[in-house]
Each structure stands twice: as structure tokens, then as C-alpha cells.
Amino acid sequence: MAEAPEEIRPPDEPFRIKVVEAIERLDRAHREEALQRAGLNLFNLSSREVYIDLLTDSGTAAMSDHQWAAMMLGDESYAGSRNFEHFESTVRELTGFPHVIPTHQGRAAEHLLLSLLARPGTIVPNNMHFDTTRAHVLRAGARPVNLAVPEAYDPDSDHPFKGNVDLARLDRLLREQGPEKVPLAMVTITNNTGGGQPVSIENLRAVSERVHAAGRPLYLDMCRWAENAYLIREREPGWSGRSIREIGRAIFDLADGATMSAKKDGLVNIGGFVATRDEALAGRLKEELIVYEGFPTYGGLARRDLEAVAVGLREGADLEFLRYRIGQVRYLADLLVREGIPIFRPVGGHGVYLDAARFLPHVPVSEYPGQSLVVELYREGGVRTVEVGSVMFGDAEPEAGGAPPLELVRLAIPRRVYTGAHLRYVADTVTAVWRRRSEIHGVRMVQVPPRLRHFTARFAPVEPPIPARAGPGRP
After folding, report:
1. Distance between CA 325 and CA 351 in Å, rounded?
2. Most C-beta atoms within 10 A of its C-beta, which of 119, 212, 343, 369?
3. Domain boundaries, the chain
């Protein structure tokens, strides 16, 4: 008699649940109606129409009792709020960056930094730009260039640091373009576009040396820095046993500053910042901030939100929380792998990425296999996910004929929100779609926004071809 497969267990929660929110599961007919109304774009759905929402891990965390209590301490003074003082001291302590400018979220921080540093005709290298970072580089008239290592484009590679920068390509870019064409270099930790993969300290140190030798500043997108530090602790020799904060400071010491959406590893629903060592740049950032966001001691946020960020940044660096957090991602991945479902390996920090190109090999890139899979996951079980491929970045790789090198669907897991039973339901939904994958057809884009098209584009199904009828004398 064959042995039963070993049970895959979810991680134990390092918290108790105090407040619950009811969610409704619409039947299939209502989900189909919602899809048509949304133009097959899940960004257009109402949250009431979604059972399990894995669209993003940004701003979707459940805040802790300490964070909610901190919000009761809001000093809503327009200038000089004591909540800003706590927020500023926390960011300085974690990062070592002396100048901290609050913003309402990460893309506002990107806007401030890139509108001042990027210029028309210049180039901004990164391991991989995510959607809003890339949009702000383009908006400034500069060109975003992705320089991730070759393994980053191989879903089956088990390279432990697929977020690393290809140093040979960075050397070539700096040599051929000249430092004057590179106003800054960026590195995203973890690499969201490429599967939530970490960057090693060894690689970041080499990037820092090269960029600084060219006289250019290095900035980090640090929104998932704690997850990156946890994976360094696991995978990089010499860092096992170090604290998350210690690893974080080793990362930040190599950079000149950072942007952050605190809606990720800050465990809040709104908030972000730019931090820098450059005092003159900090003055210019504050001038821009006043025009677009608010006074430099609140940056477009209620002061109580700054207090919640200060608490959340500390909680997000807790080792037991991170063990649970990344354990949830691995639990979902293990359930899918057991069914033979192709995913991007190794599992990163904030979600599981399905390899849509191998999931739906019969759907051509021109018919958006990632978006087709996103639609089917919602149709099957009310699970909302997001495409990271030919819709999001289809116009980002002109040298590749407009086809991005990866065609992924991201299942981003909100922090402290879903239980192991929820994730098992997600796995069952993905498995049900996998088993009928040959029946799935592509989609076409019928409304094409000029930029960041994945947020608001509309789609229609591509009808399957009608089989040719047999004529006279033909079987």
C-alpha cells in the first residue's frame, strides 16, 4: 500500500487575533458578472467582490495593538509634531541616514528623488525597476535600465540571490556611457519584478564600490528591506545568527540614501519616506515636498500615521514575525509544487510567483498569458492576483521586441491577514485552474492607457479558432 504524502503544515502564528472582518464569497455567476464589468482587469473589482485578495502586499497589512494604540497619541500640529520626532529617530536608528523626509507612500518618495536627480537623456540603472519606479524615471526624461544577473531571468534556477546586479554589465554601462550620464544608481531590495528575490551584501558592496568610484550616488528601494535581511541571514555565508537590524545597517551603510513605501515592511496602511546622507539634496527634497505633499514634519500624512510607521518599522524587523511571514509564503509554494504547478524559484520574501509562460504555454505573449491566468484564478475561486509580465512591462523591453523576459503572476500575501486555511484555499483554487489549463484562452487589450497600463487597461477574451469544416472529398 502506497504511503500517504507527508502533510504540509502552515507556520505557527506568533500573535493572537483580536479583531475579525467578515468576507463574502460570491458564487461563480456573480464573479463572472464582476469580471465583465471590470473589463477583465482585477484592479477594477470592488473589494466586496473578492474572497482572498493577493493583489498586493502594499498597505494591506493588519496593524498590531501597539500600532493602533500609538495612533491615539497623534500630535496633529502642522509643524514640529512630536510624532515626526519619533518617526525620524526610528528611521535614523534603523538606517543611519541623517536626513528623513516623510511622504504619503513610496511612489511619492520616488517622485521627489527622481524628479530632482534624473534628467532628460540620462540613464538610471537598477537590478530591476518596478512599475512606479520605472514610470518616474521615464517621466523625468531618463531611461531605466535593468541589470539583474542572468539567473534572475531563469524561473528554475535555485541561485540564492537572484536580485543581484550583474557587475559586468554595470561596469560596461559606466564605462560606455560615462558617469555624467548616470545621475544615480538604484537597487531594489527585495527585487519585486523578479520574484521577490533578495540581494546579497557581497553584491551590494561591489555595486557600491563601482558606483562611488564613478562619483555617483547609490539609492535603495528599501520597502522590503527586512525580508531581504532575513534571506541574507539564511543564505549568505557569515551572516547566520546576526540580528535583522544588524544586517540592515550593513546594507544601508553601503548606500547614500533610500526611498521606502512603509506600506510593506513598515506594516502600515499608508506612509513612506526618502532618506539621504546628502544635506544639500535634503534641502531641495523638502522644498519639493512642501509643494506636492506637505510640510517636512508631516509629508502628506496625519501625524498619527507617522507614529504607526515608527512602531511598524520596529515590528517588521522582528525575527519571529519574519520567520512566520516568510514561512507563510513557503507554505503556499510547497502546496503548489506538490501539484506540479510551475512557480518562480527559489521562493522569495513576500509572495509566490506563478510561471504563467509554463502554466499556459499554448497562449502566446501577444494574448497576455499572465493576465489570462489572473482572470481564471478569480473566475475559479474569487482569488485576486496580479500579472507581472507582458501587460505590466510589455513596453519596457524594446530590444526584445516588446516582450518582457518573464511572464509571471504574483500571489502577494498581506502581512498578518490570512490564515493557513485561507492559503490552502488559494492552493486549491490554483490547482483547479491548473487541471483545466488546456481549456484557457488568451485575452486582448481593448483599452490601452499611455503609462502604467496594468492599473486601468481593459481586456476582452480572445475567442478560440473555429475548426475548419470538412469539404467534399475531405475526411
Report:
1. 10
2. 369
3. 28-57+319-461, 65-315
Grid cell locating 213: 568610484
Question: What are the residues whose beta carbons fall under 8 Å from the beta carbon of 471, sequence distance 6 or more?
Answer: none
- Taking the C-alpha atoms of residue 162 and residue 165, their distance in angstroms, rounded to an integer, is 8
Interstrand relation of 272-276 and 383-384 (parallel, antiparallel or unpaired): unpaired
- What string of pLDDT tens digits covers the 475 residues of the chain? 555 567 899 999 999 999 999 999 999 999 999 999 999 999 899 999 999 999 999 999 999 999 999 999 999 999 999 999 999 999 999 999 999 999 999 999 999 999 999 999 999 999 999 888 998 999 999 999 999 999 999 999 999 999 999 999 999 999 999 999 999 999 999 998 889 999 999 999 999 999 999 999 999 999 999 999 999 999 999 999 999 999 999 999 999 999 999 999 999 999 999 999 999 999 999 999 999 999 999 999 999 999 999 999 999 999 999 999 999 999 999 999 999 999 999 999 999 999 999 999 999 999 999 999 999 999 999 999 999 988 877 665 443 344 578 899 999 999 999 999 999 999 999 999 999 999 999 998 887 776 767 777 888 999 875 544 444 443 3
Length of the chain: 475
Say which residue the cell 555617483 belongs to. 216
Q: Considering the domain 65-315 in this protein, what is its CATH number?
A: 3.40.640.10
With residues binned 3-state (H G I as helix, E B as strand, rest as coil), the percentages for the chain, rounded to 5, are: 45, 15, 45
Q: How far apart are CA 112 and CA 273, in angstroms?
A: 10
Residue given cell 512642501 in the structure block:
290
CATH of 28-57+319-461, picked from 3.40.50.880, 2.60.120.260, 3.40.190.10, 3.90.1150.10, is 3.90.1150.10
Grid look-up 494591506 returns 60
